[in-house]
Amino acid sequence: NILEHLYDQTAQNFTSPAILDCDYHDILFDDTTMSINLMDGDLIEGHRIKDGGEFHPSDCKPKFSTAIIVPYRDRAETLRGFLVYMHMFLRRQNIHYRIYVIEQVDMRPFNRAKLLNIGAAAAFKAGYPCLVLHDVDLLPLKPANLYACTKCPRHMSSSINKFRFVLPYLSLFGGAIAITSSQFKLINGMSNEYYGWGGEDDDLYARLEVGELKLCRFAPDTSRYHMVTHQTQQKGEKRHKLLNYAKNRINNDGLNTLRYTEVATVLHPLFTHIMVDL
Ligand code: BGN
What we know:
Elements lengths: L24 H4 L25 E2 L9 E8 L3 H16 L4 E9 L7 H14 L4 E5 L3 E3 L13 E2 L3 E2 L15 E5 H6 L13 H11 L13 E4 L11 H6 L1 H4 L11 E7 L4 E6 L1
Parallel strand pairs: 2-3, 2-4, 3-11, 7-9
Antiparallel strand pairs: 1-3, 4-8, 5-9, 6-8, 10-11
The structure holds 2-(butanoylamino)-2-deoxy-beta-D-glucopyranose.
2-(butanoylamino)-2-deoxy-beta-D-glucopyranose binds next to helix 5 and helix 6.
């Protein structure tokens, strides 16, 4: 029973006007597949999404509060499609959530993990007990893939079209994952050192091992994602070296050593946009 594995958590400073508890049974056993339609014209108007991309159901009290954190640079079209699709997808799930887009504005190679740490820090400030760390090029296909935290850190995107819907290796912990804020703090977040593509998610997996946190996954059929195609990225040169010493760095590379400059934060209708210079 999936419901038993979920943390029942609402943000501490979030109060819902509704009296009835939201029911998640129908969502978790919904067997349909979403179609990818990015032309939902009436998305914003009348659909209760507040500036900054925050949503809560109005007719029931949600059990889950989730901050969805998306590291980003240079993919405006992909981001637009992602936001429209995700709000359509998520508002059916009866959860309270907010979408944070963390944009790297400097010219150094992309640092996905550091951007995720920055987003996590913003989510902690807003009181979110659950984080979903999410790539902008991934779209969930199954309504039953609930954007809430399970008791174990959860790899959500185990079944992606790009990999012919097969998990490439067992310890893969990238793409889209759900982890509670307290678990993320326990392992000192992610490493800040991975510039360029690759390795930072494997480093996070090593941290889970140090923290003795076992990852979990929903069934492959529930965990299906569509990956939007894009150009391949510049690979991180130091990633193998860094990964070799991942477990040694957990206490002195992460949330406790996070330094950056916040250039601006803008509340857009569909997302909170945090621009940072790393
Ligand atoms: C791995 C990458 C991951 C990436 C997956 C799936 C590395 C570290 C050196 C072995 N790991 O190879 O970061 O998520 O592929 O694409 O590059």
